[in-house]
């Protein structure tokens, strides 16, 4: 049995619960945002980036992801303006001696520094916690997706890029040895909005019961 005073997971679930009636109409807006989100290549994102109030809303939306144990095993680093320009030096130093194609690399640098805003999300893992490291990483991944979804719902576009957690970035972002970059979310205004073709869930879904076992969804 749960001991409410000892089990922080239980405490997290119920302690702050307050009954509210949410308007039904809002469901449509949420589903529409989910169904129309797509990634926009970094080079197709222009100013404006979300302003301060908007980015705060986006990040607060990211704080609502399911989070086993209420650990909040992530940190957000917002980079824009001068910060974006400063990335050029960081990247040139980071890849010094490893660049095979200068032209491609310079194009990559330009694309990065012209991105209106980036939000780097990294995991801050509690290795001693009873909640598994996988669960903690998944929660951080969900936070990444909430950033993209919230930005999209507010009329912005974005894309999730992976980024190796190099020693230089670890030092720059004051990350611990166990921490990893989960993603770099580039955000801005899409030059042109569009819809992506989506596969049907049907080919990826089964039903299960003991007698029939796994059956393709139909
Ligand atoms: C964890 C993760 C890391 C990703 N890293 C990259 C990346 O480094 N480069 C890239 O082009 N796309 C990356 N993507 C994929 C894009 O963000 C995007 O989801 C994909 O191109 C499909 O576009 P869509 O979001 O419109 O379906 C990553 C996605 C995830 C979930």
Automatic annotation (TrEMBL):
Q: What class of enzyme is it?
A: oxidoreductase
Span of domain Nitroreductase: 36-188
Report which superkingdom the organism of origin falls in.
Answer: Bacteria
What keywords sit in the KW lines? Flavoprotein, FMN, NAD, NADP, Oxidoreductase
Record-listed FMN binding positions: 37-39, 68, 160-162
What EC number(s) does the entry state? 1.-.-.-
> Bound how, and how many: what does the cofactor note say?
Binds 1 FMN per subunit.
Q: Which GO terms describe its molecular function?
A: oxidoreductase activity
Q: Please give the cofactor(s) recorded in the UniProt entry for this protein.
A: FMN
Family to which this protein belongs? Belongs to the nitroreductase family.
Protein name as it appears in the record? Putative NAD(P)H nitroreductase
Can you name the source organism? Marinomonas spartinae
Q: What is the lineage of its organism?
A: Bacteria, Pseudomonadati, Pseudomonadota, Gammaproteobacteria, Oceanospirillales
Supply the gene name: ydjA_1
